[in-house]
Amino acid sequence: MRPAGPADAAWLAALAERTFRETYTAENTPENMERYVVEHFGPARQEAELRDPRMSTLVAEVDGRAAGYAQLARSEPPPPVTGPAPLEVVRFYVDRPWHGRGLAQRLMAATADTARAAGARTLWLGVWERNGRAIAFYRKCGFEDVGTHTFVLGDDHQRDRVLVRRLD
Ligand SMILES: CC(C)(COP(=O)(O)OP(=O)(O)OC[C@H]1O[C@@H](n2cnc3c(N)ncnc32)[C@H](O)[C@@H]1OP(=O)(O)O)[C@@H](O)C(=O)NCCC(=O)NCCS
Description:
Elements: E1 2-3, H1 9-24, H2 30-40, H3 43-51, E2 55-62, E3 65-73, E4 86-94, H4 103-117, E5 122-128, H5 132-140, E6 144-153, E7 156-166
Parallel strand pairs: 4-5
Antiparallel strand pairs: 1-2, 2-3, 3-4, 5-7, 6-7
Helix pairs in contact: 1-3
The structure holds coenzyme A.
């Protein structure tokens, strides 16, 4: 597990786009997927995020190759998030060959450590209500469901579960 920096932008953009597509293509229209991907992924966008002082990115590497990544951000939490010093887990993606093998738990532990070191006391995230595997994983990691918020994918307004975990 290591922090990512601007030099990681190119491969991170490729991994982020691919894992996003693999996760959501089956249940969304091609038009909505393309719109979201164009707006959110690409080396310039990822480099800007890696330089953004409000964000931090962690990469999980296996034998020197990226196997997953997590991004934290100081963002405005939605109303259901009421805990102290909140930090958002904006993205949390593990590459398919590593699903179910414990790597996601290690990435989450490193993410929580990074958040604590940044002074956070509450981790929160939004996860699509249809993403049963991710919801089951987050519950195993100690997250609790506190409500919903809206996530916009293209022109589709989707319902995300909002999950929260206290860090202390
Ligand atoms: C979400 C993610 C990080 C979890 O990592 P993982 O290694 O797959 O997680 P685990 O296998 O430890 O835990 C998943 C749990 O969900 C269960 N599960 C699998 N498919 C499921 C489904 N369709 N519905 C509900 N639960 C499911 C598994 O059995 C497992 O529970 P168990 O350990 O009690 O058996 C990983 O699957 C991933 O990167 N997915 C694609 C990206 C993504 O969805 N990211 C989250 C965005 S918010």
